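Subgroup meeting minutes
Present: P.N., E.W., G.H.
Scribe: E.W.

1. P.N. recapped why we're keeping a running log of single-chain structure predictions: easier to compare across weeks, and new members can see raw inputs and outputs side by side.
2. G.H. added today's entry (160 aa).
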Amino acid sequence: MTANPTRPPRALVVLSGLPTHLYRHGWGWVLGHRFLQLTHTGRRSGRTYTTVLEVIRFDSASGEATVMSGFGPGSDWLRNIQANGRAEVSIGRSSFLSTYRVVPIEEAMAVFADYERRNRFAAPVVRLVLSRLLGWRYDGSESARRRAAEQLPSVAFRPS
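Output recorded in log:
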């Protein structure tokens, strides 16, 4: 049986459920700036949705938090913010209306290289998860990082 690159690995689903559970019950602040909760409006339905995303860079001076769209440019949360131009972010002990920008490829590569350096002990897990999400073996090389940045857009949120 081959892996479906659009379906997340089961372990990722289980692990990603913990931050969602914490945010849902008002305990998201314990995650500090490691995860954020994005509240966005459906582009067609007009309904309000929340998505918890891992932060790969947080700039405390500007309040900008960068995330990677693990399921690519077709992720619903990404398509919703692109259609509506706004979202609310909860991170640490703060919540704010945000503006966003899609991070250019070169900057995204540098952000992710820094993320890998800061999380070097988790590198084997990160590479395994990325390989599953990408549908090809991510080895942490510069060329693999570029290919990943092209396939999985990074988005930066900051207070508006």
